[in-house]
TrEMBL record:
Mg(2+) 1 binds at residues 87, 103, 107. NCBIfam families: PRK13662.1. Belongs to the Ntdp family. The active site is at residue 23. HAMAP family: Ntdp (MF_01568). This is Nucleoside triphosphate/diphosphate phosphatase. Its EC number is 3.6.1.15, 3.6.1.6.
Amino acid sequence: MGVPIEGETLQIHSYKHNGHLHRVWEETRVLKGTQSIVIGGNDRTMVTESDGRTWITREPAICYFHSQHWFNIIGMIREDGIYYYCNISSPFIFDHEALKYIDYDLDIKVFPDMTFTLLDEDEYERHRREMNYPDVIDQILKRNVIKLIGWIRQRKGPFSPDFIDIWYERYLTYRC
């Protein structure tokens, strides 16, 4: 596994447990890249769905991926504050083609006041049965939902007060 190089752009590939490509983000600028953590920034990047449909993200976002945690976090910068979209997912890998992870359906949406909602529990249960998620994966994912909620409540990592602002300022230096 390689390490993304700061300042370069990369694609982000999301897969499903069955190995099928789920979604591709065309271009994200690497703001920090190590074996453990990748922090990226993007704005109005093209996203391609598995069925070929495309759409463009609406606002700047800072993305946080960790090689040891079963979730990733996207902080979306909007006029009324920072919204977070958190995917329960496998840890990332980077293979020089793209940053890749498996999306396990469960998501947590966090609002600027740090209230949050767990989303897509029905989709998770359906896919768990259809794709035969092993019990060990099911347990890991449920533990990571609890861990992620702890991070939100403790304002840890990307949820800390200045995290998104600091990394967004860094992202802007590449846009000049």
